[in-house]
Amino acid sequence: MAGHDVIVVGLGAMGASACWQLAQRGASVLGIDRFHPPHAHGSTHGDTRITRLACGEGPHYTPFAERSHEIWRSLEERTGRSLLRQNGILIVAGAGKIAPSHGVPQFLEATVEAARAWRIDHEILAGGEIARRFPAFGVTDGDRAYHDRLGGYVRPEACIDAQLGEARALGAELRMNETVLSFRQVPGAVEVTTTAGTWRAAQLILAAGPWLPRFLEPALARQFGVTRQVLYWFRARSPADHAAFAPERFPVFIWQPSGVEGVFYGFPAVGSFEEGVKIATEGHDVVDPDTVDRTVSPHEIEAMSGTFGRFLPGLSADCVKARVCLYTEVNAARFILDRLPGHDRIIVASPCSGHGFKHSGGVGEALAQMAMGETRIVLGRHVVDMAPFAFRPGDPPWQA
Predict the structure, then answer these.
(1) How much is the average pLDDT of 147-157?
(2) What range does the domain containing 36 cover?
(3) Which percentage of the chain shows pLDDT scores above 70?
(4) More exposed terminus of the chain, fewer Cβ within 10 Å: N or C?
């Protein structure tokens, strides 16, 4: 049986990045995906994803985001594609009771702490100043915001497509529309059985996204929750209102409004007036990735517009598009980047938890280093402590 150095299962955000990084290191790589990425079945689609260097989830994420920016810029030079737009990030918090973001109640303050820890230049704005600088936001005098110019958005489908193309050009074998049925570690290797055959490699990276838990033993699988998320694109009230959402006038944002059961986030207009402006919130309904309802009901659209539309008065209630994506979540919005307990040849990569794509370039580089046997993980100018991303076998089951 012919073998490879590394098999990568799942070619979404993390798997595509890992394939390219491994191929650049001269490894023999086999990538497998049950669909044909980029696709809309998992977590890595929707035209745009937020990127930010100051991470309220914890300062230990910043090296991944910073390195990812470097990787996107390098990939842009190699391919001529537009992947990263740094038009700024605005994190808004209301004055009253607010919902936590990624489990962090005071997300704005946590973001400020991360920015200070990494010496990221930023501003704290009051409601009046937010309204003056960014008039498309319907803020009140009691609102406060964190703002920096390094945040922005990345184009997920383009990033995946570019990395897979570069990996293939360097000799990586990519098998699309092939479902993995099982895997096992054997002496000196790992064997992966799919609908097309059995493949062998020295190392295996499991980056299967929402399908990952079904490959794990129950005690570990319970630490993950797969949830249904909905992305919405609402048309502006007029072409003039649409212009106010242009990237040079409207940063990406995360908003914890007071008096609302939820947090929402959004993007500038990256297309025409007819293509609308993308906003979303975070749901907690646990689903199966194969049977999840991928339709978006009129009730969901009406609820989104009615709850959050008032914070963006330039948007109409006309939803021109809506899409479902999936989060693979771990308690405290953690990443898992670790070897499967008891298996020294199998690496588990489940770093989504709703904030993974911005880090995926750096995550793929770290995965490549792990698979190649490097014990010191270096991302750009940072030596990364991987302890925060380890399995914790005694952790309780995931909870929304």
Answers:
(1) 98
(2) 3-46+156-224+332-389
(3) 100
(4) N
